[in-house]
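Please review this one:
***
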Amino acid sequence: MPEPAPTTPRRFPMWETVAIFAAIASLWPPYVLGWEALGWRLACWAMLGVMVAVLVRRLLAFERLKDEARRTHAQANEGQQGRDRLPWEPPEEKRDA
């Protein structure tokens, strides 16, 4: 019997994803359908504020992920000096000086 696939934790909250779709949907009435009601324009401006908040949160999250990846990479390569060997390069031969 196969084991269920491991689930990865969500990096972003669900409300951010829903807010992105809601912001896109809020653009349709005033700009695509041409509905000129003030409420639709206010909804667009409100969703613009939400999108700025989501953008800032995601930028900060990516910065944290980048820093975490750098720390992990630095810990894995603590004893090594120089650059990493590329997969197609032959291993270096150790020379006794």
